[in-house]
Design a protein that fits this description.
Blueprint (H helix, E strand, L loop, with lengths): L1 H23 L7 H18 L21 E3 L9 E2 L2 H8 L4 E7 L2 E8 L2 E7 L5 E3 L2 H4 L15 E8 L2 H9 L11 H9 L4 H6 L3 E10 L8 H10 L7 E4 L4 H11 L7 E8 L2 H6 L10 E5 L5 E12 L4 E13 L2 E7 L3 H7 L6 E7 L3 E7 L19 E6 L2 E6 L9 H8 L11 H9 L16 H4 L7 H14 L1 E2 L1 H7 L7 H10 L4 H5 L3 H4 L7 H12 L1 H11 L3 E2 L15 E4 L9 H10 L3 E3 L8 E3 L8 H9 L2 E3 L1 H12 L1
Parallel strand pairs: 2-11, 19-20, 21-22, 21-23, 23-24
Antiparallel strand pairs: 1-6, 3-9, 3-10, 4-5, 4-7, 7-8, 10-11, 12-13, 12-15, 13-14, 13-18, 15-16, 17-18
Length: about 650
């Protein structure tokens, strides 16, 4: 008995840590399949021993939320659903009753309240008892009706989700691989819980209603299906559903299983509810689950394959991750050949060895994972040297998780940020070189210094075979690299990543020295401090950079690859000289904020990112908004002007 209780304590600790990471920090520290396995084993142990620990996840709904959003207690507690992976269990649960079978969407559950036909409140599920008020954010969801025809009090529940297609577009715009979102649910959670709903609006969040909580004086004939149909008539998108009974439930589960591949919205299973509302309510609930509904979790498609190799991938933090390379297998409609093993603890736990037979699957149908090693030879050796620089490696044990690190501060992998900055849009503007791609190129030895980026065509045979690449992607990359060879002194100076030299400062420096690279790279201290915004420390850092022998070689090699355009100085009025602006919100008369910023700088002004006592004007088309910048400007007595007022001011000088 003591051994079983000890094992239960261990399981509770593991599951609670995973839940905390998932719900509070929006990250996954263990695969779903592993969580479900441990949860089921804990449940069996509790039944066997008759003991349930006070902090067991089988009786606790969730964790307390941590955020700055207002919190509100739900009128009725929102319990999680009991679950099964067996269709026969669904059939037995339904019995002689009719049911409603629908997608179990993988997003964030939201409760909406309408009064007098208007959306007045939106609250997240939170921990089931207390949620966060996100009304302003809900109003910018793609498909939520702000006004409806029903004028009495209405309360409904639904799921906020982000499409796979939108998820991929948003991730593609993030250069830093470490900052990319892991899955649509994490992205949705962060988007829905923004303090600024302008960000939410850009994320294309959709809402799908799945249950009605309150709508007085409407006769639904005791049917959930009629409730959902009525919600459709009010303008809500309702989760796809089918009416089922014991005779057709299996074929309908099969229909959903087949259609998940084409579904653009993330789903981690199905939900089955009794259509008979009164019967479902009469069953009540357990401390953890309602008895009127049950979840069906997908059985992960697991394939057996052969482990061919373990690659070691070094990152900018020094962490070296093992990557499993295996014989190709088809999973969820795509060919998979590799999966991250995450850390040394997992590698050792799976006892991996080249040639082993392994089982692989896609967590949430997206991320390839190893579920089991059938051979367990344990023959993989942990490298004593870094695969990028050859420097010494060390094993670190943090929170009982062993990870491998490179301890060489000069390792190229740790300088990935400088490479990413060099190719960024405002620098050399090389499209197709994300941080993840640069990391792979460095790991394979294609890139050793910045100038090597201009010679990636030498590695065509290797690159076209890499995951995510092909002939077309490679050709686009080479074309972008060659296009970047024609550049400006401003782009080059900014691309070098000199401490505190942002784009606007780079423009001022280049303008000071008439866009002559020889003068720019040989600037004197006295000349630099004459430039607005450059002080002693910035000037010293600038001089130190250009006097460093390593940097001189790097710059010399870059100059061999590029051609600097000659820029003619444009004579502009200095109407905004010594005036500091901050721009916030959307712009209407300019293409984007960068274009407005350029106009200000061309007329002698300066644009900064935050409102301070040195700010003279805040440009905001919505000067009544409650944004933090508006509030700060009002506190400091700074004038808030609209874009139209700015254009009128500019025009008064130009005309």
């Amino acid at each position: 008995m003591e051994d079983k209780i000890s094992l239960m304590k261990k399981y509770v600790e593991i599951l609670n840590e995973a839940s905390k990471a998932y719900y509070q920090e929006n990250k996954e520290i263990m695969p779903n399949i592993e969580y479900d396995r441990i949860y089921d084993e804990l449940l069996e142990l509790e039944k066997e021993t008759g003991i349930t620990l006070s902090n067991s996840p089988t009786i606790h709904v969730g964790y307390e939320l941590l955020s700055n959003l207002p919190k509100e207690r739900h009128e009725k507690i929102m319990l999680s659903l009991d679950k099964t992976k067996e269709v026969v269990t669904l059939k037995d649960w339904l019995g002689e009753k009719e049911g409603v079978l629908s997608w179990k969407l993988d997003g964030l559950t939201i409760v909406l309240t309408y009064k007098d036909g208007k959306l007045v409140k939106a609250v997240t599920r939170g921990n089931g008892e207390i949620g966060e008020v996100i009304t302003n954010n809900a109003k910018v969801f793609v498909n939520i009706p702000i006004n409806i025809s029903y004028k009495k009090d209405l309360i409904l529940r639904g799921e906020a989700v982000i499409k796979y297609s939108d998820f991929e577009k948003i991730n593609a715009e993030i250069a830093d691989a470490s900052e990319k979102y892991k899955n649509p649910r994490n992205l949705c959670s962060g988007s829905v819980r923004q303090l600024n709903n302008e960000i939410t609006a850009k994320r294309n969040v959709h809402f799908f209603a799945f249950s009605l909580v309150k709508a007085d004086d409407i006769n639904f004939d005791n049917s959930r299906i009629k409730q959902l149909s009525w919600l459709k008539k009010q303008g809500f998108d309702v989760v796809d559903f089918k009416k089922v009974d014991k005779f057709n439930i299996e074929e309908n589960v099969e229909w959903f299983s087949e259609n998940i591949v084409q579904n653009d919205f993330p789903s981690d299973g199905l939900v089955l509810m009794y259509d008979d509302i009164s019967y479902g309510e009469s069953l009540g609930s357990t401390a953890k689950f309602p008895r009127d509904s049950i979840a069906y979790k997908w059985r992960d498609e697991i394939k057996e394959t052969k482990l061919l190799d373990i690659e070691w991938s070094a990152s900018r933090t020094g962490l070296i991750n093992p990557i499993a390379i295996f014989e190709p297998v088809e999973l969820e409609g795509t060919t998979v050949t590799r999966a991250s093993v995450h850390n040394i603890s997992i590698l050792e736990g799976l006892e991996l060895g080249v040639g082993d037979k392994i089982n692989v699957y896609k967590a949430n149908m997206i991320i390839p994972q190893i579920s089991n090693n059938l051979t367990r030879s344990g023959m993989v050796e942990i490298p004593k040297s870094c695969p990028v620089c050859g420097g010494e490696t060390v094993l670190k044990n943090e929170n009982d998780v062993k990870s491998l690190y490179c301890i060489n501060d000069d390792c190229l992998a740790k300088q990935i940020k400088s490479f990413t900055h060099f190719v960024s849009r405002d620098a050399m503007n090389v499209e197709g070189l994300s941080e993840a791609t640069i990391e792979k190129f460095i790991a394979k030895g294609f890139i050793k210094e910045l100038a090597d980026i201009f010679h990636v065509e030498k590695y065509k045979d290797e690159i076209v075979k890499m995951e995510g690449f092909g002939e077309k992607s490679f050709n686009n990359l080479v074309s972008s690299v060659n296009k970047a060879r024609q550049t400006t002194t401003v782009r080059l100076l900014y691309s070098l990543g000199i401490s505190n030299i942002g784009l606007s400062t780079a423009k001022l420096i280049c303008k000071k020295f008439k866009y002559d690279w020889n003068l720019i790279s040989n600037a004197k201290y006295e000349e630099l401090i004459e430039i607005s915004g450059i002080g002693d420390k910035m000037a010293e850092a600038y001089l130190n950079f250009f006097n460093d022998d390593k940097n001189k070689i790097i710059i010399e090699d870059i100059l061999k690859e590029i051609e600097l355009e000659k820029i003619k100085e444009v004579s502009e009025s200095k109407i905004f000289e010594n005036i500091n602006f901050v721009i916030t919100g959307s712009v209407e008369h300019y293409k984007n904020r960068d274009e407005l910023k350029e106009v200000i700088e061309n007329h002698g002004g300066k644009v900064t990112g935050s409102v301070t006592s040195k700010t003279n004007y805040l440009i905001n088309n919505d000067n009544l908004s409650n944004s933090s910048k508006n509030k700060k400007a009002k506190e400091l007595g700074i004038d808030i002007i609209t874009e139209k007022e700015f254009i009128k001011w500019l025009g008064s000088v130009q005309n």
